């Protein structure tokens, strides 16, 4: 948790929370490129990380009690893991396409991301949805990481 907080502070030390989404100028006249939506996502992910850490700690403590019986490990866990890994690669591909400005590739990787997809299909320029695509990809990669940790905990019992 300390590493996440350190990295978050390092990344957003110059962000003004009252500034509108997009870029603004700092006291030296340089353009700041850290939007508040990205800061909000990092704060949300830090809170969720703490919550999952507490859940895993409670699960580990419960396993030590005498009446504990291990959970069955259904094959669906492996399928879910595979799907999350494949979609994580698809989100990264979409993020790279948005950074390159390739509208067609952005449309084909965002099937599950309704709001962003709707914007792209309406013809909004890719540069205007780049942040949304980046935030979706960051969230999805985080989701994959959390799932892999939970999956490892479930398999270890």
Radius of gyration from the alpha-carbon trace, in angstroms? 19 Å
Biggest sheet statistics: 2 strands, antiparallel
Unreliable sequence segments: 20-24
What percent of the residues sit in helical stretches (DSSP H or I)?
Answer: over 70%
Order of helices and strands: HEEHHHHH
Shape type? flat
Share of β-strand residues? under 5%
Taking strands numbered 1, 2, ... along the chain, how are they ordered across the largest sheet?
Answer: 1-2
- Separation of the first and last Cα atoms: 24 Å
The residue-averaged pLDDT reads 76
Annotation, overall tally of beta strands: 2
Question: How many helical stretches?
Answer: 6
Any idea how many domains?
A: 2
SSE class: mainly alpha
Present the secondary structure layout.
Layout: H1 2-12, E1 24-25, E2 31-32, H2 36-63, H3 76-100, H4 103-109, H5 114-121, H6 126-156
Antiparallel strand pairs: 1-2
Helix pairs in contact: 1-2, 2-6, 3-4, 3-6
